[in-house]
Amino acid sequence: MNRMVMAAALALAALGTGATASAQTYPARSIQVIVPFAGGSASDVVLRVLLERMGTSMGRRFIVENRPGAGGNTGTAAAAKADPDGYTLVMSTLGPLAANKTLFRDLGYDPEKDFEPISLFAIVPNVIVVSSKLPVTSLADFVAYAKSRPKEINYGSVGPGSSQHLAGAYFEQVAGIQMTHVPYRNIAQYVPDLIAGSVPAGFQFLPNVIAPLRSGDARALAVTSQQRMAALPDVPTVAEAGISGYAPSGWLALLAPRGTPKPIIARLHEEIAAAIADPAVRDKFSELGAEAVATTPDELAKFISSEIAKWRDIITTAGITVAQ
User: Which entry of 199, 260, 269, 287 is 20 to 30 Å from 317 by CA?
Assistant: First the structure.
């Protein structure tokens, strides 16, 4: 029996030593980052800015794998089941990590239990945008126009339960209007309908609508940030436009599968913090309509739990359901 105990102890010690050695040499190869949305989406674009800086600092490539589907659940679930060795990470957002816990009966993962949080790295305010064909030039005009046409105004998003969908549903509650949500598989399908005026409104991230804004085919009425966006200095905040108590924003976080060694999580957190502190990264985020932020793993875990509770109330009030 004593021999068995000693053998078990030696085996555990060897495992611990192996984990420490692995963390010390990490990363020894390229790192895969699963993105649960289509390539070219706002979250995808902002993430790549971060990963380029981290890759340079760490001396290894970060390879993005886009796995869209089920409101972000498909890719996020795949990441939860990946080997916890630090070589598969996931960039996920408000939908898969918070809102979808209310919207779906079975995610295939638990946002609060199946991941090792690393850091929040961006807050992405929504831009309230309308087609130039819509006869409104201010947020007050838009609210009045929508009130006189209940459910006639269509607004688009990249899918049921997406942050753009929830921002629109939340705006209906705050402004006292009724609109019709039109979900799309990806942003490339939505933009032509925005320009044409068939789906004339949106609560979008800036990269998703920057092209029609620049061409004049769409106009920004307000932004949901606390201060005006550097990329849209002439566009008022929602508060400046006369509506208080409405400031939803998307957010982007990096996580690893549960069980990833703590030293590896610490290394990745350190690299994210260094990237976020880089003025070049912050400036590029700002151009893309995102605010660069960094949190500790514990802060991110608490933030996710608070967002689950916040959006549960909004979704329940709105009566939003998703086919499952």
Answer: 199
User: What whole-number distance in Å separates Cα of residue 203 and Cα of residue 2?
Assistant: 66
Within a 10 A sphere around the Cβ of 182, how many other Cβ atoms? 17
CA distance 297 to 254: 10
Residues 6+ apart with CB under 8 A from 218: 129, 130, 131, 132, 194, 195, 209, 212
Residue 214 lies in a domain: yes
Give, in order, the Cα–Cα distances in Å from 324 to each of 93, 103, 114. 20, 9, 21
Could you tell me if 259 and 189 lie in one domain? no
* 219 lies in the same domain as 137: yes
295-315 pLDDT, tens digit per residue, is: 999 999 999 999 999 999 999
Give yes or no: residues 105 and 131 share one domain: no
Tokens 């880089």 correspond to: 278
Please tell me the distance from the alpha carbon of residue 136 to that of residue 125, in angstroms, as a whole number. 22
Is the pLDDT assigned to residue 263 strictly greater than 80?
A: yes
On whether both 114 and 133 belong to a single domain, the answer is no
Sheet order of strands, 88-93 included:
62-66, 31-35, 88-93, 249-257, 115-125, 291-292
| CA 89 remoteness from chain centre | 15
Q: Using an 8 Å Cβ cutoff, are 257 and 115 in contact?
A: yes
Same domain, yes or no: 213 and 135: yes
pLDDT in the model for residue 22: 61
Check which CATH number belongs to the domain holding 150 and give it. Answer: 3.40.190.10
Residues 63 and 112 in one domain: yes
Amino acid at 316: T
Angle between helices 206-215 and 42-58 (to 10 degrees): 120
Residue 297: HSE in the Cβ half-sphere, 13 Å Cα cutoff: 19
86-102 pLDDT per residue, tens? 999 999 999 999 999 99
Cβ(92)–Cβ(36) under 8 Å? Answer: yes
Q: By residue range, what is the domain housing residue 150?
A: 127-223
Query: pLDDT at position 4, please?
Result: 46
